[in-house]
Amino acid sequence: MVLAPKNARKIIKKAASTDLFHYTEVSKRLLPAIAMIVYADTSVYPMAFKLFGGIMVITSLVLYFVPRKMHHQYALKCAEVLKPTLIRLLSPIAVLPGSLLIISVN
Predict the structure, then answer these.
(1) Statement: the pTM of the whole predicted model exceeds 0.70
(2) Scanning 30, 33, 41, 57, which has the fewest C-beta atoms within 10 Å of its C-beta?
(3) For residue 12, what are the CA distances in angstroms to 21, 42, 52, 101, 103?
């Protein structure tokens, strides 16, 4: 996101553009979410893992039932709002939770 915000924007625009992309995207969110819940007790912050894993599972399941075209329209609107400069500014927000996740695994 920091190094190639235009590419990040292109990827956002492709979200749910086809049935394959839609269900692949949702499944790629669901599998790590389930793993976070299953392995939460082995982490430094088990409650946080269960909470965030649960949120990801719920939102993923909701997305399975949201019409693909609606999901794609939402992605297009987000890509329109997220200009490359804004993506660069917001990218540290994505890095922080990812880094915390990595260091909290035992």
Answers:
(1) yes
(2) 41
(3) 11, 33, 22, 23, 27
